[in-house]
Design a protein that fits this description.
Elements (H helix, E strand, L loop, with lengths): L2 H28 L10 E5 L5 H10 L6 H11 L8 E5 L5 H10 L4 E5 L6 H10 L5 H10 L27 E5 L4 H15 L2 H9 L4 H14 L3 H16 L7 H10 L36 H8 L8 E4 L7 E4 L2 H22 L1
Helix pairs in contact: 2-3, 5-6, 9-10, 9-12, 10-12
Length: 353
């Protein structure tokens, strides 16, 4: 091998090494903040924003981890001056190049928002307002007074009630069109409920002698009382067993709903709380609450329609404090389980203090 060929090979190897090194550096700079975080945030890019302005906004929203890195990459991609103003749905799982491509293309046709299972109308309104999608007061007014007569499940006799749609604003991840008003957003959510609560569910409810609102009321109690899926059918069985025996449900969640409407949030109820004057108080009233207490997810709706077959009459949060419940048909055993739970809470709180 002559010296010229040898030098050429060495130069090529060095150049290849440089290219690989640069590629690795760029790959490292372009990595997402958290690939596993699939949540989306609605980010506003103002008219006339510079690359640095955009980078600072993205950093503030925790969508990138470095302003200088984003500016450097933007310069390499020759994106400076090409970004468009708008509202963009962006995620920490996106790379800097993916984020930059969305803003450069002006892809702001839809905004992503996730309504968690178990949210109330009030919480949903607040979340949407925080995302800049609605005016909270207008949203609640639409829920109370909007014309949703095309949806047969919306109570026709509750016009003017801010909680008329409680239970029916289906918890889901939505792509909301930019510029959608409060009524359009509510309609999108009601349409999704109608899709989930299909004909099969309706026929099952009818066979049980239940209205849609009663099913969703039961499902909302299940949603609040069962933190894990394996407990949902059991909680449902307790509800039906107690209703059949004409026993008060005595669910903390229904009282906590009433307190929540008053701006009071309490993990453990006091004796005075259980005597509060409200039709939602399942300690002092037999039967179901008059309406749902939150928007349940599909698992809780299914549990309400297909409960487990048990003789359970009682349940209490497990003393293991792992999110599960302990179930029993024996009152004395229930008392013992309640005491174990209280001691576990006391022990946990003493460690935290």
């Amino acid at each position: 091998m002559n010296k010229t060929v040898k030098k050429t090979i060495i130069v090529l190897v060095v150049l290849l090494a440089i290219v690989v090194a640069i590629s690795l550096v760029l790959y490292g700079l372009n990595r997402p903040v958290d690939r596993s975080d699939q949540t989306y945030k609605n980010v506003t890019i103002q008219q006339g924003s510079s690359t640095e302005d955009i980078a600072k906004t993205l950093k503030k929203e925790k969508l990138i981890n470095s302003v200088s890195q984003y500016k450097f990459l933007s310069r390499i991609w020759r994106y400076d001056g090409q970004y468009k103003a708008g509202i963009y749905s962006l995620s920490p799982s996106m790379t800097k190049s993916e984020i930059a491509d969305v803003i450069k293309a002006g892809q702001s046709q839809a905004l992503t928002v996730t309504i968690p299972e178990g949210y109330t109308v009030e919480q949903t309104a607040q979340l949407l307002a925080d995302q800049g999608l609605v005016d909270k007061d207008k949203f609640l007014d639409v829920c109370a007074n909007g014309d949703f007569s095309k949806f047969s499940f919306v109570p026709a006799d509750k016009s003017g009630d801010a909680h008329r749609l409680e239970g029916f604003l289906y918890p889901e991840t939505y792509q909301v069109p930019v510029g959608a008003d409060e009524e359009q957003i509510v309609t999108i959510m009601l349409n999704q409920f109608q899709t989930v609560y299909n004909t099969r569910y309706q026929k099952k409810a009818e066979s049980m002698g239940l209205t849609t609102e009663q099913v969703i009321t039961i499902a909302s109690l299940i949603e609040k009382e069962a933190a894990v899926d394996e407990d949902r059918g059991k909680v449902a069985s307790v509800i039906y067993n107690r209703l059949k025996a004409d026993m008060p449900l005595q669910f903390c969640s229904s009282v906590q709903y009433v307190l929540g409407l008053q701006g009071i949030h309490r993990e453990i109820l006091t004796n005075a709380d259980t005597q509060i004057d409200s039709p939602y108080n399942t300690y002092t009233h037999t039967g179901l609450p008059p309406a749902p207490i939150c928007s349940p997810g599909k698992a809780s709706i299914r549990a309400a329609l297909w409960p487990d077959d048990t003789d359970y009459m009682y349940f209490v949060v497990s003393y293991k404090l792992d999110g599960t419940n302990e179930f029993t048909s024996d009152y004395d055993e229930f008392q013992k389980l309640t005491e174990k739970y209280a001691k576990a809470i006391e022990k946990r709180d003493s460690k935290n203090n």
